[in-house]
Amino acid sequence: MRLACAVVLGGVLVAAGCMLPRREAVKCGEQYCPAGSTCVGDGGCLCNTVEACGESCQPCQAPANATPTCVVGVCDFTCNDGYCRAPVGDVCTSTMDDPDNCGSCGTRCDSRVCNRGACGTAPEEVVTASMPAGLALAVGGGALYVANLATAANGGQIIRVTLPSTTDRLPNRESPFEIAADADSIYWTERGSGGVIRATLALGNPTSIAVGQTQPYGIALDDQYVYWTNEGTNDVLRVPKAGGARTQIAGAQATPHGIVVDSSLVYWANQSDGTIKATPPGGGAINLVAGSLTMPEMLAIYQNDVYATTATTVAKVTGQARRIIATDQKSPVGLAFDNGFVYWTNRGTAPGYTDGSVMRMSLSSGSPEVLARSNRWATSPWSIVVDSQYVYWTTFTANGSVWRLPK
């Protein structure tokens, strides 16, 4: 039954011909207010329902995983079961992975790690906070190698950690970027000098095996060659490990970044056009492997399949069952694999990157797990590697470190 009434709030006609029956409306002075309202002042309305709340009688909203409420004319919300109200911001966080509400509301993890509702182990610092812009990692010859980009000219370093903690440094490098290792040597791209460099596993005899490159980025190895991407000239090249003539195997690419190689193809990620492309190691036809990706960054090969990080996902881009492994990630970068698990770093949100994290997920079942998340351990995490016992990652900050956790 249509109610012949006019609802006037603050002297302004806001509704006429109300749809509510008169018995459900509240008469305040000369006007009728929605059911459940309280009369205030000189015939004013204070609405008290979720659909109409406060003096303006507007509907209440709630964040994700919450239910809106209206209490004495004030909109609010309550978190749903399994979620707790965060101390900062109008959000509800899951008790499965929130270190301030781990397992139940108010249960705080000193380790700042909460996995599946249980507090986890705090990471261990392997290389102390003395690496401005600590970046890439590689494992070889029983040691961990770090490319320390640095922020000052000639301030970069290659750092060798003979596990668990003995550290040697090769100083005065010009912005080393990505790094790779084989049984005999380490290799890295150097953006400041425009070179591709080789050194022994003991950091001896650093030698330029390619010079004159423009912003060299990713690096990969096979048995005989070193492959790399040039971000500045949009090409992909290779050179013999011992040095010699370099060969362009792909030109006119679109900001190529990560690169990997297997026995038959070289793959790289074109960040600008959202593609993964491939060509035979010696060059030839360039094939589109995957497209319509958003800013693909790094690549990795596991069990003959290629995986990629993009702006918000971790994806399998080759093989019979191509799929998105994880969605809604925060700028994932590094990738590593071990024993049926994929590990990755979420750099986080600019400019502070304080919501970075280190993640793990079973490739056969389950959902992403948070291994580390805090301003100290996971601010702008970048590269990640695993060995037989640990997972290691760098933090790409002004006081970067290398951290590890047992797998």
Characterization of the model:
Helix content is 0%, strand content 50%. The protein is built from no helices and 41 strands. A hairpin with a 4-residue loop joins strand 27 (256-261) and strand 28 (266-270).
For this entry, give a set of tags.
mainly beta, single chain, 0% helix, four-stranded antiparallel beta sheet, 407 residues, disordered N terminus
Summarize the structure.
Helices cover 0% and strands 50% of the residues. The strands form 13 sheets. The protein has a four-stranded antiparallel beta sheet, with no helix packed on it. The protein has a four-stranded antiparallel beta sheet with strand order 15-16-17-18, with no helix packed on it. A four-stranded antiparallel beta sheet has the order 19-20-21-22, with no helix packed on it.
List the helices and strands and how they pair.
Layout: E1 6-9, E2 12-16, E3 26-28, E4 31-33, E5 38-40, E6 44-48, E7 53-54, E8 66-71, E9 74-79, E10 83-85, E11 92-94, E12 114-115, E13 118-119, E14 124-131, E15 134-140, E16 143-148, E17 156-162, E18 166-173, E19 176-181, E20 185-190, E21 195-200, E22 207-210, E23 216-221, E24 225-230, E25 235-240, E26 247-250, E27 256-261, E28 266-270, E29 275-279, E30 287-290, E31 299-302, E32 305-309, E33 314-316, E34 323-326, E35 332-338, E36 341-346, E37 357-362, E38 369-372, E39 381-386, E40 390-395, E41 400-406
Antiparallel strand pairs: 1-2, 3-4, 5-6, 6-7, 8-9, 10-11, 12-13, 14-41, 15-16, 16-17, 17-18, 19-20, 20-21, 21-22, 23-24, 24-25, 25-26, 27-28, 28-29, 29-30, 31-32, 32-33, 33-34, 35-36, 36-37, 37-38, 39-40, 40-41
